[in-house]
Amino acid sequence: MEFQASITSLLPLLRDQAHSVATIRHVFDKDSEEASFLNPGQIPVITADQPIYATAKQIQWHWP
Fold first, then answer.
1. Which pairs count as long-range contacts for 56-62, CB under 8 Å and 24+ apart, including other chains?
2. Are 31 and 11 within 8 A, CB to CB?
3. Model pLDDT for residues 4-34, shown as the tens digit of each residue
4. What is the pTM of this model?
5. b or e along 30-62 (b: 16 or more beta carbons within 10 Å of the residue's beta carbon)?
């Protein structure tokens, strides 16, 4: 039986406030870069609590 290795990465903690637009946008950009480097073609998945998710969706709509 053949197995494929899963490639994962843990990003560093943030110094700035997690709920700021700049931080969330930065996380979007870095997560996209990391995902394309580790697994080309894979769609990045980001999880967040509800208040940060609401801000993240607004950012995603503003900068698709």
1. 56/24, 56/28, 59/21, 59/24, 59/25, 59/28, 60/28
2. yes
3. 887 777 778 888 898 999 999 999 999 899 8
4. 0.75
5. eeeeebeeeeeeeeeeeeeeeebeebbeebeee
